[in-house]
Amino acid sequence: MKFLEAIGLALSAIKAHKLRSFLTLLGIIFGVAVVIVVVSMVEGFNNYFEEKISDLGSNAFIVDKMGIITSMQEWMEKSRKNKDIRLDDLKAIKEKTNPAVVKDAAGQTRRRGNIKYDSKLLQDVLIQGATSNLLDIDSTKVEQGRFFTQTEEDHADEVCFVGYEIVKQYFLSVDPIGREIKVDGRPFRIIGVAQEKGSVFGNPQDNFLIIPISTYQNIYGSRGTIALRVASTSKETLERAQDEVRVILRAKRHLKYEDPDNFGIVSSEALNGIRDRIFGTIGIVAVGVTSIALVVGGIVIMNMMLVSVTERTREIGIRKSLGAKRGDILKQFLAESTTLSLVGGAAGVALAYGVSKIVTYALSFPTTLPIFWTMIALTVSASIGLFFGIYPAMKAARLDPIEALRAD
């Protein structure tokens, strides 16, 4: 029997018992759908995370007071023991690091405040104070106008670089450059607009403005901690740059060799490591659930195929009497179980695609349908049908044609 003929007979058998075939395939459909939905959400989140969250700039990392916090106890301990990062720490890094390793370093601090233009008030706006070289390291890009200069920072000028949300709220139909807005009651002149960043999990990322850090400290004080963005000269020197910064800050704070760092270093690799640990656990759980569903689905397929062999005993006897060999009968039933399982896998993929789109639309959660895992899921589902179809197929192939023809 030719392969295509066996597939055709299998499809005919499935069409003849549509409801039974569907009920048989529920386990396979559920298992494949679960793994595809989970993987698509993980893949989508990974891409989203790298683009929106872990992108700290070109070959850059952050030095701050706390570092990465994973528990309330750790936060309480570090907030008490770790020292504030100051502008003199930034100065030490810029002066003492090897220029062949560390390309540049910038300072940044932030708080929430209100801005006003004419009579319209925007509340809970992210107000950032930064050094003039921040955009040389940060992933924020200029859409219109410019960022402030070193001279404007030195003179603590009241100029600001704003996010797209502020333009959308105040200056959608006019040129914002040169316009004056009030930041917590103080007048600031807009000199530039950032490229739109969009949102992260539904939270807008463009509701911010940046002012010179000297101006920020004049208004809000200089007692709080700041964060430093440090850029290495290349990807290859990134770890060396982190080591140099760590050595300089430890020496400046007179830490002993056995003392832990009283500051934090945050890199894209560290953020991605936390992400991988979280989603690694999710992946293990998903594989466990999927494995159970697929095994149950395979057992159901085997049961249905055994019923099918019993129902079609006379058909098997007729085929054998007309010259069909054991191998032909074996192929026919293996093709039927494999095709049945593959159809279930395809239905599971289609279901997963629909669920992923609904999740993206309803929750603004990014999903990506991975071609590789889709092919893996279809291959596994077909393999399950093949494996669990072996026993029924062998039972059908071993039937005695004379006894089979006597069957009712």
Q: How would you sum up this structure, described in words?
A:
The protein is an alpha+beta fold. It is 56% helix and 18% strand. The protein contains 14 helices and twelve strands. It has helices spanning 3-16, 18-53, 72-81, 87-96, 150-154, 164-170, 213-220, 238-252, 268-311, 313-321, 326-363, 371-388, 390-397, 401-406, and strands spanning 60-64, 102-117, 120-130, 142-145, 159-162, 180-183, 186-194, 199-200, 203-204, 208-212, 227-232, 264-267. The strands form two sheets. A six-stranded mixed β-barrel has the order 2-3-10-5-7-6, surrounded by four helices. A hairpin with a 2-residue loop joins strand 8 and strand 9 (203-204). Helix 9 runs parallel beside helix 12 (371-388). The radius of gyration is 32 Å and the shape is elongated.
- In round numbers, the mean pLDDT is 82
- The unreliable regions are none
User: Roughly how many Å apart are the termini?
Assistant: 26 Å
Q: Strand pairing plus helix content: what structural class?
A: alpha+beta
How many beta-strand segments? 12
Give the ordered list of helices and strands. Answer: HHEHHEEEHEHEEEEEHEHEHHHHHH
Q: How many strands, what sense, and barrel or not for the largest sheet?
A: 6 strands, mixed, barrel
CA radius of gyration: 32 Å
The largest beta-sheet arranges its strands as 2-3-10-5-7-6
Total number of helical segments?
Answer: 14
Outline type? elongated
Kindly state the percentage of residues in helix: 55-70%
Sheet-strand content, in percent, reads 15-25%
Write the layout of secondary structure elements.
Elements: H1 3-16, H2 18-53, E1 60-64, H3 72-81, H4 87-96, E2 102-117, E3 120-130, E4 142-145, H5 150-154, E5 159-162, H6 164-170, E6 180-183, E7 186-194, E8 199-200, E9 203-204, E10 208-212, H7 213-220, E11 227-232, H8 238-252, E12 264-267, H9 268-311, H10 313-321, H11 326-363, H12 371-388, H13 390-397, H14 401-406
Parallel strand pairs: 3-10, 5-7
Antiparallel strand pairs: 1-11, 1-12, 2-3, 2-6, 2-11, 4-7, 5-10, 6-7, 8-9
Helix pairs in contact: 1-11, 2-9, 2-11, 2-12, 4-8, 9-11, 9-12, 9-13, 11-12, 11-13
